Amino acid sequence: MFAAFVQGPLVRVIPLGLILLALQRTIFVEIQVGGVIIQIMMATAAAAGVAGGSERGAIVGFILGVMFDLAEGTPLGSTATAMTVAGAVGGLLALIAADPHWWLEAIFTALGTAVGVAMVPLLRAFIGESEPFQRQLVVVIAVVAAAAALLSPLLVPLGRWCLRMRRPEWKQPVGDATT
Amino acid sequence: MAIYSIGRKRVILALLLTTVLLLTLDLNGNPVIDAGREGFAQVMRPVETATGVVTNPIERIWHGITDYDDLENENIALQEKVDRLVGGQAAAEAAVIEGKELQALNSLPSLSGIDTEVARVVGYAANNLDQVIEIDKGSLSDIEVGMAVVNQAGLVGRVTKVSLTSARVMLVTDSRYTVAVKVTSAADADADVSTNTSPSGLSPSEIADAATTTTTVPAPLGPFVPGVTLPDGSPVPETTLPGTALGPDGQPVIDPLTGRPLDAAQIAALLDALAATSTAPTAGTSADTPSATSPTGSPTTGSATSGSAPTPATTTTTTIAEIIEKEYGALEGRGRLRLPQIIFVQDSPSLSELVAGDLVETAGGSESLAPTGIPVGRVVNRAARPGSGGPLLDIALHADLGRLNIVRVVLYKPLSEVDQ
């Protein structure tokens, strides 16, 4: 069991989550684009989904989300749900292409992040918060998704490292060597 | 590449159900989760401190690139503002002292008797939805949930969560924030205040020279908080709330520009100079306040320059405008980048119409954790609504919530919660 834990993704995801959370709460609060805070943790969850599939993406999103909720004081599970969905959506979109190019990965990461960000006010409404949908929500989604796309060349390999995965290598079948 | 299967769907479903379970437990209040938050905060603190140190240069570069022009313009505007405030301050403080004496005579509630706890802002919310800050004082400093938080300018928000050594403060702009307020008229206040203390045409250094000799008696600053300083190195006064002043009751008299206490001889000399340079004849005012009366019967005050340097004499003539309490309402935050709004208000023909420029302060009340009289802001826009809904008032807050550094938690309990 211990060996399974050590070899599992948790050993890497939790320390990475701590660092990302610290970055989220320091530099990304200061460096805002058009008054919007870039959601690096949400983007990482989506990128992990793109790198490792929907199941692993959801697990990474869940862990990052719980850490975010614990640190931010938001209702525990509210951001975790959104990040779980972001990871799952990123993974589902990645099924479209067997070995996606970097720009496809960027698009998938952006879409997964956008869905996750849109989920946050939806969940807040679900738990009874008044007026969680703000006018600038569209701008927030657009900016955060664009930032996720730009950061995806960093975040997708990071997600692979977290999940102990390697980029798939496609080999030509032996019988087709002459063609 | 991952292949989508029923098993994977179950994992995702299980995770989502777990989040719903956590959400339910947390919303109902769970001590285990609360302890988990405390523990996680302890783990996060060193990581966050280290990250802050590492990323600080990057933040500075970013702000240097993006905010330089704004900063320059703001600096010019602030210099103008300082010029005006230097003149208006002496008059305002005298009026506050007089108000305090009247309040004492009438046994009215006053902010000056309420203790505050000075705290440093250590973090802002990291999401785009909440308007929340974190401060470095908690229940060990007698801070409780619901207490109002202010800075030198006015109301900032209220405490929503408290741990031993930190607390979370929901800002006035958060869409969940509501507080009872009263709208008072300071109509024509600007017109009534005639100030010629900003010597036009002077360079900033000349203005500073003139300003350092301006008498301010007594300054609204109390003893300083040990170990807490503002970014420019100046000390933080200990107990004052916005809208209050300490009377001539033994508290140190501080020059607000230099931050240094004045000794008795200096105060006496400055009071003499003040009386000598007052432009209006004095009549019918308290002898122990530096106020005088203008020919119109309104109190006036003066501030004077001293010393042998040929700095231009500055005189302030202020007519204190009559304050009319127009209406009570509820101030609601509306989220990021939007002005808070006052609802449940109606025009009162017997008083006057609610208009842009009216002042807003907390209304207090027997159950409110925000005592009455904390300045909140000023009405900047009025939107009429059809029917009986009454107008909506947009409020520009006095406090700049984007640049909070030092705040004060008002350690106030309403009468309904005080132990008998």
Describe this structure in words.
The complex is a heterodimer of chains A (179) and B (420). With 179 residues, chain A is an all-alpha fold. Chain A has one domain (39-166). Chain A has helices at 2-7, 10-25, 27-30, 40-52, 54-72, 78-94, 102-126, 137-162. In chain A, 57% of the residues are buried. By secondary structure, chain B is an alpha+beta fold. Chain B is globular and about 80 Å long. The N and C termini of chain B lie far apart (69 Å). Classes of the chains: A mainly alpha (179), B alpha+beta (420). At the A-B interface, helix 2, helix 3, helix 5, helix 6 and helix 7 of A face helix 1 and helix 2 of B.
Keywords for this structure?
heterodimer; A: mainly alpha; 8 helices; 0% strand; globular; B: 420 residues; alpha+beta; Thrombin, subunit H; 3 domains; 6-stranded antiparallel beta barrel; 6-stranded antiparallel barrel
In short:
The complex is a heterodimer of chains A (179) and B (420). Chain A has 179 residues and is mainly alpha-helical.
List the helices and strands and how they pair.
The complex is a heterodimer of chains A (179) and B (420).
Chain A: H1 2-7, H2 10-25, H3 27-30, H4 40-52, H5 54-72, H6 78-94, H7 102-126, H8 137-162
Chain B: H1 6-27, H2 31-66, H3 68-106, E1 116-124, E2 132-135, E3 148-150, E4 155-162, E5 167-171, E6 178-185, H4 189-192, E7 193-195, H5 204-211, E8 224-229, E9 235-237, H6 264-277, E10 291-293, E11 299-301, E12 316-318, E13 324-332, E14 341-343, E15 359-362, E16 375-383, E17 392-397, E18 406-410
Antiparallel strand pairs in B: 1-2, 1-18, 2-5, 3-4, 3-18, 4-5, 6-13, 6-15, 7-12, 8-9, 10-11, 13-14, 14-17, 15-16, 16-17
